[in-house]
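PROTOCOL LOG
Step 1. Enter all chains and additional molecules of the complex.
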Amino acid sequence: MFIGIDVGGTGIKAGVVAKNGEILVEKSCPTLPKRDPRIVVDDLIYLIHEVINESKVNKDSIEGIGIGIPGIADPINGDVIECVNLYWRNIPLKEWILEEFDMPIYIDNDASVAALAEFETGSLKGTNNSVLLTLGTGIGAGIIINGKLHSGTHGVTEFGHTIVGENFYDCTCNRNGCLETFASATALIKYTKKIINESKEHTIILDKVENDLDKLDAKTIVDAAKEGDKLANRALDRLIKYLKIGLANIIYTIDPELIALGGGLSKAGNFLIDRLTKEVNNFKLFDDVDIAKIVLAKLGNEAGIIGAAMLCKNK
Amino acid sequence: MFIGIDVGGTGIKAGVVAKNGEILVEKSCPTLPKRDPRIVVDDLIYLIHEVINESKVNKDSIEGIGIGIPGIADPINGDVIECVNLYWRNIPLKEWILEEFDMPIYIDNDASVAALAEFETGSLKGTNNSVLLTLGTGIGAGIIINGKLHSGTHGVTEFGHTIVGENFYDCTCNRNGCLETFASATALIKYTKKIINESKEHTIILDKVENDLDKLDAKTIVDAAKEGDKLANRALDRLIKYLKIGLANIIYTIDPELIALGGGLSKAGNFLIDRLTKEVNNFKLFDDVDIAKIVLAKLGNEAGIIGAAMLCKNK
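Step 2. Run joint prediction.
Step 3. Record the structure below.
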């Protein structure tokens, strides 16, 4: 039995998870990240006590605590190095939890944790080398190599910040050309706004947002594209062009057997997968050699808890 | 004891190699790749017999044969899928050798094999996650993850063909923007020729090649840059700009602890390493987190034999 914790900008979720990935008990509390980090972590610790009590499992049967964070952690000492959304920097998270729970504690990035969940119980199950790419506000990748989560030497696998071209705006990391400035939901929205403002051509997107571009989200653009809107399809074509490059780059770096797409944008479903698969296959280096299959991720919100718990099994 | 074989476009080298990477006996023969592949492989088999006989080791003490090829091999059945320089396509290399030697046979790409040699006896020794990047006519990467060579699911780790921008000429793979069209020796020569032809400005490169640009090679450009030639430095700056992107991309994909540079261009030595290290560090995502150190590869021509032999130990 493991404890899995999913720390997000809005809420903290904790669960008691069986070795097969089944969540026995789950509870959550708000993060309220503007508070002192020590207070937030005290809430997190309280939540662990609560799920253990509610599950009625013997505390001794719990083999470890895994935590997914929206940022990076030092793989050696378990310090949180940086979580921008939480205003956390150099927080000794592992040490603080160890004061209360004397058991193995593992901390990793949320994209890596989600990949591990997909590997244990979802779309990547049964693979040896595979990737979960999360397409949301940013882009993250969780990488499975040789049947193990690969989080890197310094805990910094930040695939969304690989450079794939030159873009009309800089990334939040202050560099130019990051994949996530071309192929995330944020990028799709920014580019669509840009071409709406520049082209003045008719688009049903404007009807959908009642002429208020502040209301524009990725789903609206995808919906308009599905309905045949030209401008929306142009924006989506650009996203696909660069996402194809991102996928090809990960394919020609580590050559996985399967890549699953998760995150908000993946809700575009087969509309996205079918076009991407076609584009990536047209972009192959060798006609005779198979490359990674592209599929949709399977798990939803519970991936965070399951994957975090599975960190205890992975190590 | 293993047999290591390095198949190149010009010559085939074979050696009897001890488990510690020491070459006991080494012999070579010309490849003459325009001949029937079966004849070339017969020569290769003859070479194996020769090194075994000359080494006087008992044939039973040889645990396997490893082969590095300048192309891609199917990791399951050992067929050579494609070696452009050898005019080989779908050659059942493993099967042909098995007819003569009934022992484990492993075949892998030469960049992967060179990385394994560096890992066992050279610059990558003692690392857990590391990369050898070979900068020559093209660019190749050999990747060590968790203390094992990672050759990918389909044997296609072709880092030189990851896309990092748009370029003024297409790659040999018919796509545009491949890293090796910006940062290989070939790319450096092409770009230097282009700016010499376009700018008409004075450069000592022209003196060095006696005004015959067909004589231009990467060493001449690097030498001119070291001597302070402006045009040569401009060409090298561009190479470094994109090599930095390539290094950052591999860093933010798999986060290795060490990246070694090999291949012809690496002969530029610390002149290259120092500038690259500075540029890559200026390009870091997180100030507080270390990233991969960049060093020179250590092994020379013998890396091919040693690494091929070590394939038997790696599997």
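Step 4. Note key features.
The first helix of chain A runs from residue 37 to 55.
Chain A touches chain B through 50 residues (CB under 8 Å).
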